[in-house]
Design goal:
With about 45 residues, this protein is mostly helical. The protein contains two helices and no strands.
Length: about 45
């Protein structure tokens, strides 16, 4: 397992990917509905 982590870290370094990665939020059904203009009232 440590070899795979080391390999991934090397690839990230070669490609200029900084660690730790930026924080990403979760997608909820409500946020998708809002983004695409659907009424939240349609949700159960």
């Amino acid at each position: 397992m440590l070899n795979s982590v080391r390999t991934v870290n090397e690839v990230f370094k070669e490609r200029g990917v900084s660690i730790p990665l930026e924080n990403h939020t979760s997608v909820t059904e409500k946020s998708v509905m809002k983004k695409f203009g659907h009424s939240e009232e349609a949700l159960p």
